[in-house]
Design brief:
Blueprint (H helix, E strand, L loop, with lengths): L4 E7 L3 H12 L6 E8 L5 H8 L4 E5 L5 H14 L4 E6 L2 E3 L3 H9 L5 E10 L6 E3 L2 E3 L6 E3 L14 E3 L6 E5 H7 L11 H11 L3 E12 L11 H18 L5 H21 L3 H16 L3
Parallel strand pairs: 1-2, 1-4, 2-3, 6-12
Antiparallel strand pairs: 4-11, 5-12, 6-7, 6-11, 8-9, 10-12
Length: 295
């Protein structure tokens, strides 16, 4: 018998995207699955639309937006209490190929030390262009290098491989791994929670895998309001500082400070040239708050 998968989707005022996502979830060839939607205080009728269109979905309605990571953990705790062997965290602004979940489970079942598996993810607006096939981590400065991003897919990423990091846009996670590693760290609120969790999982001895036979499409940057918005810039900046503060060793700090200072200069120049003063202020406010937050 196939192991049961619990799909966990977090939504906030994203009714149209969520309904489209759920349509592809319920059209999976993999039949042994349940779905939890954690609504983060939506005010646009999302909950009612889901209940009407997909009444088989378990809805957990929060009174206010508690952030992405805390929302994840509401769903994770619920699923872990129900003893699901696999938990599939999925962004609501995604569309799955019909064999996506089956491909993920097949890869996860191939070895006991595989703890997390991601699909090959394309841009929804350019269905043949790769958004993510995972990353490699630089051990000197803890930065990640995207694999295959923006490449048109010609089959160059059709082999399952070990990766260092997987975006939490879509990740299948083993219950046994989560019981050992724990839940995502809620200090991140938005962004970098995936890098933090993947690093923790690898330090516990788990492998992370790309399952390219499993495919999906992502409507990028919807949840934060889009790229370079004040909201996106603030949370990205804040979380980046927290990530390096949490994981960097003393010997790595000179390298990280130089690298991140150059990154801050490039980001500031880009925002200034685009006349995004609101985003520039939000970016530096996020950096400052990241240095002040208690770990």
């Amino acid at each position: 018998m196939k192991p049961t998968v619990c799909v966990i989707i977090i939504t906030w005022n994203g009714g149209e995207d969520t309904l489209a996502c759920l349509e592809t979830v319920y059209n999976q060839h993999y039949g042994n699955l349940d779905v939890i939607v954690v609504d983060n205080g939506s005010t646009d009728g999302t909950v009612g639309q889901i209940a009407e269109r997909f009444p088989q979905t378990k809805l957990i309605c929060l009174p206010e937006n508690i952030g992405a990571v805390r929302g994840y953990n509401v769903g994770f705790r619920n699923a872990l209490q129900a003893d699901y062997p696999y938990l599939f965290l999925l962004n609501n602004d995604t569309l799955l190929a019909s064999d996506c979940i089956g491909g993920l489970v097949k890869e996860a079942e191939s070895a006991a030390d595989i703890g997390l598996v991601m699909p090959k993810i394309y841009y929804a607006g350019e269905p043949a262009r790769i958004w993510s096939v995972g990353t490699r981590a630089n051990p000197l400065n803890l930065e990640i290098v995207q694999l295959g991003q923006n490449e048109v897919d010609h089959g160059q990423w059709d082999k399952a491989i070990d990766i260092d990091d997987a975006p939490f846009c879509a990740v299948l996670m083993k219950r046994t791994m989560m019981e050992e590693v724990g839940l995502p760290d809620e200090i991140f609120y938005f962004y970098y929670e995936d890098m933090d969790y993947c690093l923790r999982a690898r330090r516990h001895g788990y492998r992370l895998r790309l399952a390219p036979a499993a495919t999906m499409w992502h409507k990028v940057s919807r949840s934060s309001g889009g790229s370079d918005t004040p909201r996106e810039r603030y949370w990205m900046a804040r979380s980046s500082v927290l990530y390096f503060r949490k994981h960097a060793h003393l010997w790595q700090w000179p390298i990280i400070v130089l690298w991140r200072s150059a990154s801050a200069a490039r980001t500031s120049l880009r925002l200034a040239c685009k006349r995004r003063g609101d985003s520039l202020k939000a970016y530096w406010r996020g950096l400052w708050h990241g240095t002040r937050e208690r770990l």
